[in-house]
Amino acid sequence: MRGRLHFVAFLGMLCCGMVSLGCNGFRSQGMNSEGTRFYQQGNFQAANQRFLQAIQIDPENADGYYNLGATYHQLARQSQQAANYDLAEDYYNRCLDRNGDHVECYRALAVMLVERGRSEDANRLMQGWLQRSPTLADARVEYARLLEEFSEPDRSKQLLEEALLIDPRHPRALAALGNLYEKSGDPQQQIQALQLYERSLASNNLQPALAQRVASLRSSLGGFQFGTNTLPGNPNPNTRVVNTPPNAYPGRQ
Fold first, then answer.
1. CATH code, domain carrying 45
2. Pair (93, 32) in one structural domain
């Protein structure tokens, strides 16, 4: 009987611990939400306080560290103080320590490194992510965006095509690849760009800027015929993928 009582007491303690962890996570996210509202209002001091509270409540909350990094990043842009850049980088890295596939954090950290004249570090950051997560479409999309900044459109296009092999409906991959086609200036490639944009909107219709680009591009291409083209990552399983490297998934067994 005593053994059963001890076991019941242990279960009770375990359940209390689980409830506590759940409450902490909920409270931490609440602080993140409040901080985000302050951030959007430009009240970075109040935002910073809420984000600090978020990680104090839940030290493993990756979003809290990312939000702190983003806040110090914005302050650094305004003040150009190296100390704020250093704090931003530290918090971004703490975020990635807790969530190794935090898309927004990788993007923000890469942008900040480029801003500070550390393009090689940004490139290594994205290469490392791609090597650690070879089957994650987001890793390819974000690295492709960085390579486009480095004026490497061919490599960027290859990564986006690979991303669409992994996830044919990935809205940012579709939009980014469409952007590369649109920039070519070739009407036929711009037709492909339009089709990619429309597929992106079909996957995520909450892209008002992209919807405007579609309308503008349709207007400028008014004299051209819109046929059915074979595009990378088309959901049709019989679609032929263009310029796909032999090993589309590096590191995958």
1. 1.25.40.10
2. yes
- Is residue 72 over pLDDT 70? yes
Residues 35 and 55 both lie in one domain: yes
Q: How far is CA 145 from the centre of its chain?
A: 11
- The parent domain of residue 154 ranges over 112-168
* Helix, strand counts (H, E) of the chain: 11, 0
Burial of 142 (0-12, 13-18, 19+ CB in 10 A): buried
Quote the pLDDT of residue 253.
Answer: 23
pLDDT of residue 244: 24
pLDDT at 235: 36
DSSP H or E segment with residue 77: helix 62-79
Question: Which three-class secondary structure state does DSSP give residue 135?
Answer: coil
Instruction: Give the side-chain half-sphere CA count within 13 A for 67.
Output: 29
Residue 6 has pLDDT above 80, yes or no: no
Helix axes 137-149, 103-115, angle to 10 degrees: 20
pLDDT at 3 over 70: no
- 61 and 84 inside one domain: yes
> Mean pLDDT over residues 9-38, rounded?
64
Q: Average pLDDT in the 24-53 region?
A: 91
Distance CA 102, CA 129 (A): 10
Q: Which residues contact 234 (CB under 8 A, 6 or more apart)?
A: 168
Show Cβ contacts of residue 215 under 8 Å, excluding neighbours closer than 6 positions: none
Tokens of 46: 């109040």
Work out the average pLDDT over 17-37: 72
Which residue is associated with the tokens 């978020």? 54
